[in-house]
# Entry
Amino acid sequence: MNEAKKKKTETYVVVSRDGSMSALGAFFVYLISGLFLGVGFWVARNKFAVDLVSDPSLTLFLLWSIEFPVVAIVYSFLRKAPEKCSWSKAVGRSILGLISGAFMNALGAIALGAPVGMQYLPKTIHWSFLMSVFTFLPATAVFGASWTDWHRAFASMKPIGNIEYMIVIPAYGATVGGWFGAWPMPLDWERPWQEWPICVCYGAIGGCIVGQILSLSLMFLFRKHKNLKVA
Amino acid sequence: METHPKRINRWIPLAFLLIHSVAILIFTRGFLLTRTELPFHSTCSDASLSPCLSPNPPIHHSYSNQNQPKCWTKPVVDRVVIIVLDALRIDFLAPSAFFPAKPWMDKLTVLQNLAFGNESSAKIFKAFADPPTTSLQRLKGLTTGGLPTFVDVGNSFGAPAIVEDNFINQLVLNGKRLVMMGDDTWTQLFPNQFHKSYPFPSFNVKDLDTVDNGCIEHLFPTLYKDDWDVLIAHFLGVDHAGHIFGVDSMPMINKLEQYNTVLERVVDILESQAGPGGVHENTMLIVMGDHGQTLNGDHGGGTAEEVETTMFAMSTKKHTTSVPPEFDTSSCKQDPDGKQMCISSIEQLDFAATLSALLGISFPFGSIGHVNPELYALGSSSLNLDNTKQPAVKEWMKSYVNVLCVNAWQVKRYIDVYSNSSVVGFSSDDMSRISNLYSAAEHNWSNSVKHILMYNDGNEDSTNTSALKAQIAAYLKFFSSVAELARSKWTEFNLSLMITGFGILVISLILQSLAIVHGDNKPYGVSSGLSTGAAFTLFIVLIRACSFLSNSYILEEGKVANFLLATTGLIKLRYSVMRKTMRKEAFVFLAMVSVLRVSIDIGLTKQAATSQFMSSSPTWMLGLAPDHPALTYAIEIAPILSVAALICVLYVAIARTHSEGIWKYVTVGSMLSYFLIALLWASESKIFGFDGLLQVIGGRNIIPQTVYVIGLVQLFLLASAHMFCSGKDKNWGSRTVALVSACSSPVILLSGKQGSMLALAYLLAGYCIMRLEGVERRTKSDGQNKFSKLDSVCVVQWSLLSVCMFFASGHWCAFDGLRYGAAFVGFDEFVLIRQAILLTIETFGFSIILSVFGLPLLIPSHGEKRHQLFQMYMLYGVISATTVTATILCVTIHRRHLMVWGLFAPKFVFDVVGLILTDVLICLASAFYL
# Structure
């Protein structure tokens, strides 16, 4: 779990409850990010002739560097308090979020037992950037440095509105998926994908997708619930 | 009201200690088959005690002028070439007519042609190995003629050298010269016995060729020389090819084809020198496997594929004796051309006895095998060279029956001596059955057969022959019943005992859990279904228990525990962020976990260097060179600084807990001990210039001994203080600090220089666990009895932390993971009990002793303490017992697994010892604290 909510002091407390994002919109956002993840894999395979197993660090680098601009741009449109914070500022802070999130992810991974050694360093760095794209980047783009929003959404698990569902549930999904993805690593099957960080990546991507599906269905239920209430 | 629960509380841990001991004892009786190694050796002169004819009976004057020294039997071959092909399956050698055809069959054609050719003095045997089918145990079994078990009592721990009497040892005693080449396991088992040896490292499974090429390089030149009597060449390629690629693979077929050419050359050399006066005039070539393998290349268990291996034997003398059909074990098949092909069968158990008989040396003392008739017949062609008037079969039978007589006497002697001197002997029923069989055969021998052999009048040939046959049959019956008894005793698990032990343990787990839940329902506690914390605890404990079902997770147990500990730390961090308290502690805890994991990694690389199951992958690499001056400086300084920090911690603890009276003095004593330890380390290192100090105070043993004495005095003071001021002093903090500090100084001293740093990390992590206790519900239910309920997560964290400490302090669950050096800190001479105690303190010091005694430190500063402490101890006991139950389930399931003796059984022993120690300490701690 990336409990890296050690953020700056509460600069502004603006909770804009714009439940403007519909489940369909969320689905399209997910579709775009998933599409570009696929593009990342495609580029890695067809342009560089590598995959996660043969060259994890290059593949991971391609994945996160293709995925990152898309996620940053898309989620910056969904930022909170758009009247106070311009789109370009949101993109700028998401870059900061990416780096600090990668740092937090790397620390968490090392505490959990990721190998520390010079030959693993690039893999760990690129992996943590990819994890940061899944977990921290959307949140920084949307919340910025609003500690109350972070705290409410991640620590207290009380997301409000569809956008926060979109941020929190896939992020938790990716971390839990990565956690489970580490389980096959010690087994003696001698498969190349058991190396750090390959199966953890698969786990994280899988967990992220499960989180996305879960959040979509929650949004769907939530909407129905609201409709019922209205009716 | 106050005294009643106190009574109960003290007895409950004792009851669980008893239940666990009984369960483990029962299980161990079924699982850990033990055999006592006897220190006795056979000598040539022993044979005069037997009722048999000496090898130079007075009537055979023709033999007495031979210049060879005679021992138990008349030697029939002069030299033996033993080529061991590791993991040689029966279908690698035996012709494919016996099996459904597969691509790896019929590759060793040179041996098949020899065995099934006309005029041959060669034979292929199906050889049965006994489990455990691992190379080391098999070599031991082959050479001692016994059935090695996991716990061969008397085996010197650590060094694998065989101390029991064995075939190799007998060869040396009888003046035979041995040459060995190939697998270096032989030189580990027999460090001094070889006249010449060319060992090659065997641990790298991925290397198919180093050992084999080394063997080949030395084999051919040696075959031409005459400076040896027995040659052993051990090839490993097939075993390694099986492990890596499996049986049905090109590398395996290539290996077998390579062996075929090697063997062809060997046979050529032997035959070219086989003429009269040649070096190999009377040589026997034996090509054998030590065990089989499954199609995946695994071995170690007792399945047919693993135990069925093969043996090829050939004598360079062309004339052979056929065995009477009663004793012929061969099974025959027609090959496609209609040629008759027969393979015989032999037990590996009989190998040592048969070879001893062939070479004419005394049989190993502990051998329970018998001389195999067909293999013996292959070599005995030299018997009837000058005695042509008798039929060959009869002559062979006469010599064979005498050999069997000596053999039977030797086996009976071993069984008797073993039964008298072993810890766990045979039952009297079995003994009397065996004795009856033996005395019947022996009676028959003395009354009739002996006379037939001694006064050979040549008459009544048919009656004589049938008498001889009956005698041989009687002996063989005796041997088979001995082997059956030995197998049931030494190779077969008693499944019902194992299941009983497991069942008792499961019942005790349920009872223990009930004790905790029952405690919860008392008025002190808040009863509330299954809380999140309890569910999470259950989840973590169950994951850890399930992880023991796979050998991979057992190998990486330290990492698994660390992973789970870090997971609990992250969860706590999340809660602490949520509640906006203790964030600093949560981060420090994660940092300490990271420190421990680095330490665990270093420990694992040490383990990988010796383990046969782990590949030593250097995941840990420092940029600094190991002898960088800054690094050496840091290594010298850091432990001493840590000790200084520990002294400060104790000082603060005294001040904070308001220690008074005896508790304070005990804690001050620990500070003194710490100071002495720091002084010792400073004087051992070169950079402080304290080198002269050790001479001044008189030897390097003074300081450790002083520390031990201080520790003992402290414990004595604590015990007496508890007895005399029981109930008066309720200041728990100071009592715990006193007890833990008193125990910690010897532990730190024994753990060496890393000990102080680990203790510091342990202390910090424990402090964080204490501060984070109950963080997830700190603000949730304010006001209503919030701290009285047991926080199970922190006990799980404490228990996981102690497991991590076990691995972080450089231990692992194997006997080579014990640090024997620690037993000699402060002492030079060896006294078993004293050194064993020191070794136990070193091994389980951090993980069990400090962990159990330090558990009260986790209790928050208010609430109903005594009851909660009891619950915490029960929970801690449940967690330990759960892991042991999982281990026991795992060894029951995997009892025929490849790694059962290398991995599961040591893990079982460590866990069981740990559980008993935990139970004992919980009893003591609850007597002290409650």
User: Anything to note?
Assistant: The helical segments of chain A are 23-46, 56-77, 87-112, 121-143, 147-155, 161-181, 198-230. Confidence is low (pLDDT under 50) at residues 1-19, 227-231 of chain A. Residues 73 and 91 of chain A are 6 Å apart (CA to CA).
